[in-house]
Every structure is written in C-alpha cells, then in structure tokens.
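step=predict obj=GTPase Era n=324
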Amino acid sequence: MSDPSEITSPPLDAPAPQSSAEVPTYSGFVAILGKPNVGKSTLLNTFLGVKVAPITPKPQTTRRGVRGVYTDRQASEVRQLVFVDTPGFHRAKDALGEFMNREVRAAVVDVDVILWVVDLRRPPSDEDKEVARLLRGLDPSTRVYLVGNKLDAAKYPDEALELYGELVPNVSRTYRLSALEDPEAVYALRAELLGELAEGPLFFPEDIRSDQSRETWAAEIIRESAMTHLRQELPYAVAVQVLQWRDPEGDEPLYLMAELWVERANHRMIVLGKGGSMIREIGRSARKQLEVFLGHRVFLELEVVVRRAWREDPEALRELGFEG
C-alpha cells in the first residue's frame, strides 16, 4: 500500500532544488503530451507506481497539468524524473477548455523530453494533427519521443506509428507499448529516461510523488468516480471541490466533505439519482479508492450544488484552482 505522503504532498508551484550533497544527483523534466483519451494518465501512473492522475474511458478526464515525481536512489547516485501529465489538446469550447490548452502549451516549455502519446489502434485524427503542429513549432533541439500506446489492441501498429511519425520530422525515437497491459515496457522506457538525465539538483524531496495538494488529489478521485458512473455529456459539466478535510483521531475515520458542481437543476437531479442512488454509488466508489490509497477508513460526505455556467465563470474557475 502506498504511503499517503506520496500522494498528498503540499503543492510546489515553483519547485526548489533539493540538496543531496553526499552523492551526485541527476534530474530532468518530461512532458507527456497527446490528444484526449490516448492513455497519458495511465502512462504517468505506471511510471510512478502510484495513482496520482484520474483515469476513465472518457476523453478530457485530465483538466490540469499534474506533476509526478519518480526518484531512484542508488548507493552512488540519485536520479529524479519529473513527469508533467497534460490535459488532452483539443478544440476548446469554453473557458475551461482554453485553460486546459494553455496548460498543454506551457508544459512543453523548458522540459528535457516530450513524450508524444498516440493511440496505435487508429490513424492520426485532426486532434493528433493539432498536437503535431504544436510539436513542429518547437525548437529543433527539443527531444520528442513518439510513444504508440494501446499496442495490445492495435491491428496495424507499425503502419499507424509510421503515419504519426511522418507528421513530426523532429521525432528522434519511437516506442510501442501498452501502458495498461504491459507495465514492464513502461518501466523499460522509464529506465532509459533515467539513464539520459543530466547532472543537476533534485527539484523535489525524495519521498514526494506528486505536487498536488491532498484536497486536489481527493477531488480528482471523486470526479473520476462521477465520470465513470454518469453517462453522455453530463460528466464534463461536473466539477468537484473538497471543502473540509479532517484528519482522524484514534479509531475515528478521516472526514471529507466535498461539493459536486453542476450547471443546471436537471443535472443535479441526474447526479443525485432516484432516491439518492446515483450520488451514493459515486460516493461509495470514491470512498473505496480513498481508503486504499490513504490506508484509513474514510467518511465521505457529498453535496450536489448548481453553479450555473461555471465553465465560463472566471471566479468559479479560480475557486477550483484553474488559474491563468
């Protein structure tokens, strides 16, 4: 079971170099880029060996950049990879979507490597071509590695990988893997990235796995549960804000209180479900995940509130942490 400190670390918006004077240290930043629903968050979680990013079969599950930290300490050296998982690059339809695309553009600045993740089951789509256009506009010295994901379900992976590679001439390396079904291939890629790091200071303490606050992490677990259980377009109009986190005393459960925001009154009724059945199911699923990762019983209280047009409301977006 994971140590809660690995996934509930305080936010570090501007990470300060960490001292490790007794042995040489190596570090670098790796951005994980791609259109929605190609497996970027699954890849990140597998790199880290712990869940820091939400995963659902629905596109646009990731809404903000999440930094995941993997530190490998050996007797003679310490190596640290800082992965930046980005939202899927897409055609924005609202202020939230514009924020998500800004997160993607910001992620490719000042990183050492970009992992461009694509779905090997399909040829390049218009959204893939938008990502490729962004990559072609980078400094030619930027290392771009093409990562073909979902290999286990691809009929013509070689042909698909070739089509993607033709879109970005500055791709310097290609990989084929299944982040969900073949973690060993992901670990092999991680080992290569570790071996290529330049000597430099550690940017995070060695026991940190994510730069998210514990409230943000818990909110994403709850939102993942909501997206999994709700159908059609409604999941994209749901936001989650954790308002209370009370650490347990003795045998008491950890107490969490969160709001689920929806934009219309009829959406609220859907999220609640008949007799409260849907919100109970969302809460039950989220609570199970929280208890597994935190290693403690959790009392989770959920409320569903109407926050009209929150995706276009700058104040609402700031409350949820979507700055910029």
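step=describe
The two ends are 36 Å apart (CA to CA).
step=end
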